[in-house]
Protein 1
Amino acid sequence: MYSVDLPQIDDLDHYRPISNTVLYDDRGRPFGSFALQRRIIAQYEDFPKVLYDAVLSIEDKNFEKHSGFEIWRMLVAAGHDLRSHSNVQGASTLTMQLARNLFLSPERTFSRKCREIMLAVQIEHHLTKKQIFALYANQIYLGHGVYGFAAGAQYYFGKDVKVLTLEEAAMLAALPKAPNNYSPIKDPDRALRRRNLVIDSMIAAGKISTMEGATAKRTPIRLQIHDDPNSLAPYFVEETRRYLEKKYGAEEVHEAGLRVYTTLDIDLQKAANSAVLDGLAAYERRHGWRTHLPQLAHERSEQYNVPEWNQVEEPGDYAQAKVLSVSSASATLRVGRYTANIGAGDVAWTNKTLPQLLSPSDLAYVKVIGIGPDGKARVRLEEESGVQGALLAIDSASGDVKAMVGGRDFSESKFNRATQAMRQVGSSFKPYVYTAAIDRGATPEDEVLDAPATFVTASGSYRPHNYDEKFEGSITLRHALAESRNIPALKVAQRLGIQTVIGYARRFGIGEHIPPYLPVALGAVELTLLEHTSAYSAFPNDGVRAIPHYIAKVTDFDGRILEQNYPVVQDVISVHTARTMTSMLREVVLHGTGIAASRLKYPVAGKTGTTNDFTDAWFIGFSPDITCGVWVGFDEKKTLGNKETGARAALPIWMDFMAAALPRLGPPKDFLPIPEDNDLMLANEETDLPGQGKKKLASQISAERRLVLVGAGSKTSPAHPDSAVAGVHK
């Protein structure tokens, strides 16, 4: 009767459990996953002998000999159950456990046990022992949402299952019996006893020597918990998830085990993470201590744990730390499994004493400076005032997104400031103005008058100013852009016509609405960091913009290609215009507002940007190969503070990232020279095509050289050279 309605197992050799969708970087290194269950499917050959021996020693010593069940084990278990008046339980072989996990409910009844035996016999007839073990090893639950020994090795020990040590293999083999009871996270002492029981079973089975077992039993359980596989690039992972779910559906993405080969570079992403967090920490220190630390309620204090504690692995990590004790001389904190001490001298930058800053059960924000073998860490007290930062790096030639940071902490805010935030760009918009001029016949050495001027617009007249309240008279376009002079940019835009400037911005791929007002020339327009950075990538790429993308290829679990993406490019401007603008943006770095970047030992170029009241700070720049954009600001669009310009707040982050990224991209490479045959670029006065600008407009701009300086008007507050003109928005 128990054979009725048994599951069919004819296709069991093709069975595959719910599998993770795995994300790989551009070198094939995994860095993220999506799954309803945390699982990594492995082959029989991937499981080391020490794990095989550990599992069989504790779960099924005669696995290689029996045909699915052992009658004597069943009789012993039944006798025990009769004496204890309990339901049939225990005595399950490894094959019976597999049958139960695959096909049956966990209820403990005599009928279920009979069905379990029948299925086990069928499985043994249909599959080899190696296949059975591999299925079991991929299917078994190990606690904390983890299924299978490959995923267990990654989760508990942060390593590939192939390189497990004896004691680590024994710990994993100890879990299937009761994953929650023997969890080394929940109950380390109980887990240790169970692990050592596995080691004793291996000794008894002759799988290891008594000496090997004794050494392993003396070894404490050392966990390296990897709780969040997406912690390296969470904003990039989230962008990828949205795309995949929209195209393939949530069920396929979370259960079918897709393989997603992305454009991300793990090394560049790590550099980006560090650059943003270090840059925000430097900003906080410039402004002193301004926050009040949150405090844990007493009932939560003892058991408090935060996800990022599991990710604290190396110097440079930032995390929340629980304050354990405080005195006038020192404070003791806990960061995950580490403790750390902070001395009075370590907080001198705050101008406060330790008791003024910290109290027991406070949550402090710290940077890990060093980690010792004794469970001690060296940390530095930092601050979280709410300032945010974003960074995006793109391969200029292909459009591959190589690194993305969308904010300070993904666990606190999923809002991606690299792709979703619309922020005013300030003078980082000016290159589009000068591109229009160069493309239509001007040269970098043409002159424009930097003098007081009143401009009449649809919203009225206004008199813009330069940051230094000075006017330099007749200056070249190259110098005007390098020093981010406001008056020259407006004059060039006025002569071109603001609609022409907007048209050029459109060529660069900027699709956001741009109001047709002259102050747009100074950046009175809101863009995303992704859009703005992608536009700049046309300069080092000889006037061609590769549309940014995240995914190179997607395959199903069996390797069949579902999609494969190649660069999609758009012509923006001519080679001549692109290289000319690159030389002008190089001047920004060599002698202008971005001069700090000249310390890099690689040719780079770019532009700073700052908005009114120092609300947004930008730097968008590039090398011959990679374009990177950085934004710093508060979400609520409040001031960063006096003189927090793009050069001060954003450029150092950009420099830190590029200093780490550029050596990974090969030896230093210089920008290509401007083509000498300029006549070809100006051959057609009538066309609006890129690179064939109008001599008439060029002569108009050059005629500025002959203008007489206008007397200074009434004195008003200056605008920063990177900033949009005050009073633009009503």
Protein 2
Amino acid sequence: MSPSGGHAVVRALVDNGVNLVFGIPGTHNLEIYRYLADSGIRHITPRHEQGGGYAADAYARVSGRPGVVITTTGPGLTNATTAAATAYADSIPMLLISPGMPRGMERKDIGWLHEVKDQHAHLEAIVDTSIRVDSAAEAYAAITATFRRWRISRPRPVHIEVPVDVLDEAYDPSSLAATTPAAGAPAATAGGPDAPVPDASAIAAAAGALARAESVVMIVGGGARRATHEVREVAERLDAPVITTVNGKGILPETHPLSLGAAIRLAEAHRIISSAQALLVVGSVLGDDELWGHTVQASGTVVRIDIDERQLDKNLTATHGLHGDAAATLRLLLDALPAEVRNTLGRRATQLRAACDADAMREGRAFADYHAALREVLPPETIFAGDSAQVSYFGTAHQWPSLRPGQFVYPAGYATLGYGIPGGIGAALAAPGTPVVVLAGDGGTMFTIQEFATAVDLGLGLPVVVMNNGGFQEIREGMADRGIQPLAVDVRSPDFPLLGKALGGEGRRADGPAELAAAVTEALRRTVPTLIEVRL
């Protein structure tokens, strides 16, 4: 028998180096599952498609490889859209594959199972692009083209919709020959030969302006995740302090003498930025989701590097806009910089870092002792998965020093709740052998608590630490600040340790930082996850 269209989908994933997918089988995607079992691709089954999407997002952040999610039509796909929007906001490569209405039946409103008015249009409004194909060969080509595009452009989520009748009908595999990618092509490596780079005159002008400035600050965002070596070399050549966004956390190791940490939302950081004669901004839109009400005020030269040309003047106009891949462009800039520059701001980096840390501590003091206790017992390569919770953005973002990108997986841009547990699962699958700790609040944890059972299924010794403040503390405080009577922010929590055991793992309470450190250390030795409650 000839294979069905589901074979073309799976073959495209295999040919593009995919070795792990997240998904839940449903009535309309069974032809994909027919061929997954023998494909060599590991399949992870979450308890909910949103959890699968968050796990795929974190997997991509830690591994550098795209996260892949397979859903069924309608509710299966719409369940995953919040995770897709999270990946879009933070420029994470995620591939969503779903069936769609049979050809010719779109927008007919005929009461078909899982029918959505326009599923393709729904996703098009959320992800970078949604592609509806008409044949098995087109499905293969669309998946392959997506992986190729990620290698040379801004990596954002893509949805590919394969009509159910295309998945079900037979096709000729020889029709795919013309679109087979080059053997061994990496799945998502930036800086390839086709990635854009600025022309030599633009590089020379930017290098000259930076070399002449007596105070230079680098601002580094998530678009520089694959330029860690180049960021470090340029920072050292310029002797420039480096401030990162949370998405850029760890691109320059936060133990480096020039690192000011993920400080971009802090008033102290903006005092440093606004007084500098030159700014070098790499891979960041400088949006409010990272700046928290601040705007970047430049007093002199602004050099911006971004693979997305539209970013070069967003929120801060560049005097020197360099459209190109971050790593390749920084290498060219390094070659153009003279051995001696005028900048002396790097000599004050230790003092500036202390000022930023003190600023961060004003909001993060409640979590400082807990992070300090964890630093005493955990190796420096430990990965933390956070949530849109105070313990994450006031605590871990500033209080856990990252040595590389992907050590703090956190939904900075979309600020979704529920990321923590599935994010920890994705991180653990991406970095087996590396300790992973989930540190989140009680409100967000309850959004995706069912994924704790997924971690049990996978045998992950994952500590899930719940900082329990009895509801939605950030919103509670926001209401109080506005003089609003608190409403709908005080919610009852379950018995978290008992719930951990009921879901097949372990559970315990920790009273204070020392007990938390001991509980996390013990949890990492297990082969099931542990739900650890800390009552604030």
